[in-house]
Amino acid sequence: MNTAIYAGTFDPITNGHLDILRRALQVFPHITVATAETVSKRCTFTLDERLSLLREVTRDMDGVEVRAFEGLLVDFARELGAKVIIRGLRQTTDFDYEFQMATMNARLDSDIQTIFFLSSLEYLHLSSSLVKEIATLGGDVSQLVPPQVEDAIIQKVK
Ligand code: COA
Question: Which of ligand 1's atoms lies nearest the C-alpha of 69?
């Protein structure tokens, strides 16, 4: 079975991302969770912090490896021998952006397929930015992120 890549910024990883990862593991036994070294948006967490949180929260998941990558995602996929990119879809508003990325990645390498997993209902409204905003304003994010991430956000926004 193919290795698959679940790529994102993960600034930081949320329960929504973990939900997609758990469900994708039922289809792909080996998944590399890949966080981009250089991203167009400004990150709250450094690359090392994002990697370390990703490793902590996926520690007990068999078949998961966490890596950073630089440059094009399709080049990293080729380097790993991965033929599948996993993305999560939350709402129709994600579709335009995801469609553009998937078709551009297919154009860059037609051997690599993007496969979408629909977010579970309880995570449809979740994003890393919202979690950070809620924590900054003193709200409770314990239902939205794993405990290690909650601690890291609270430290960060202090
Ligand atoms: N649950 C909760 N949140 C989710 C989610 C889910 N299932 N799926 C997406 N999100 C959120 C993220 O938290 C993030 O929210 P934020 O903007 O508030 O932080 C947002 O949706 C999108 O983030 P993410 O899924 O991490 O995608 P991205 O657009 O930040 O990163 C890369 C995408 C890194 C995969 C992409 O930029 C990339 O491939 N970069 C490499 C360069 C490249 O190849 N470019 C050419 C691409 S065609």
Answer: 41
